Amino acid sequence: MPSSQEHYLVITALGVDRPGIVNAITRHVSSCGCNIEDSRLAMLGKEFTFIMLLSGSWNAINLIESTLPLKGAEMDLLIVMKRTESQARLPMPSTVWVKVDVADSPHIIERFTDLFDSHQMNIAELVSKTQSAEGDKPPQLYIQITAHSPAMLDGSIIESAFHQLCTELHAQGSISVVNYPQHEEKRRRVVMNTLKAGDIAPKFSLPDQDGEQVNLTDFQGQKVLVYFYPKAMTPGCTVQACGLRDNMDDLKKYGVEVLGISTDKPEKLSLFTEKELLNFTLLSDENHEVAGGFGVWGEKTFMGKTYDGIHRISFLIDEDGKVEKVFDDFKTSNHHDIVLNYLKGI
Question: Which family, according to the similarity comment (predicted)?
């Protein structure tokens, strides 16, 4: 069948496990003339979940869309379907596999997924299972993760970070890093053109930690400190945010409002605000368009790894919407002092 005539459908079937249920589903898929391109099956308690990517002609996909819900009702299954498109796999020069055994407790999986996120890696597969407590031994959590990186990795960096996390969590873990040099592509360097004092600040509208839209024009007639930071809930960014929090009264004396901008989602910003009791607004610039407009999105190097990200730069915007001062030489621990000293004329 010509690829131009192929259509694709993702199906999820959820229900109580019993013998023959998977065979019944796959038989129905075949009878409709569809092909199973990819599939995953998982047992969760007494429930099973079967996820499939199907391909077929328009008639075949249309047939299964119209008949599978009825078949699912007969088998007491919840069926969810969504049309999709074929997508060529992007080159992923590096792949990492990890396995972890650790005493089960809240947020354990999050700690490991955050590890990969902080290294700009895409998680392709995550499997976890909890083993019940036995005697004096607490419940054990088993985790297996496969992640890909669109850039060539220095394996020693992710390995060191992984083992450090395992040590912190008293976990037993193994990690394997494989690089595929033939897939490495030349990076397109992003040239930063950072705003200077006297430039007009780009107008923007971004969601805050509560999902509400905030516009720079909302602060017309006021001074605004717009500070860009790489990632919420990381050590350096937490120190910087808490410094501003603790000195908010002094900043208010000089009529300064504070807006923190990162590429984090609003949900994470909400957690960050709640955890650190932050008393100012955080904004989500997921597509880094505002960061690009201010000229703070560009090439960075950290522990031998080169990637594009937000540079830690702050801008004091005056009452007329112009950049009054650019702060680009500070430590996270003294950022608030540098800003206040400028406001005080020191």
Answer: Belongs to the peroxiredoxin family. BCP/PrxQ subfamily.
pLDDT 10s digits, 206-244 = 999 999 999 999 999 999 999 999 999 888 899 999 999
Model pLDDT for residues 75-90, shown as the tens digit of each residue: 999 999 999 987 655 5
Q: Please report, as a single letter, which amino acid is at residue 308.
A: D
In angstroms, the CA 132 to CA 275 distance is: 31
- The residue among 65 and 186 whose pLDDT is bigger is 65
Bridge-based pairing of strands 256-262 and 223-228 is parallel
- Token digits for 217? 């024009």
User: Which tokens hold the place of 17?
Assistant: 């496990």
Q: Which of 191, 197, 193, 192 is nearest to 326 (CA)?
A: 197
Q: Give every CB contact of residue 26 below 8 A, 6+ residues apart in sequence.
A: 36
CB within 8 Å of 279: residues ≥ 6 apart: 245, 248
Phi, psi of 261 (to 5 degrees): -125, 130
> What domains, with CATH codes, occur in the chain?
7-84 (3.30.70.260), 94-179 (3.30.70.260), 199-344 (3.40.30.10)
Q: Tell me the C-alpha distance between 332 and 230, whole Å.
A: 12
Q: What are the residue numbers of the active site?
A: 237
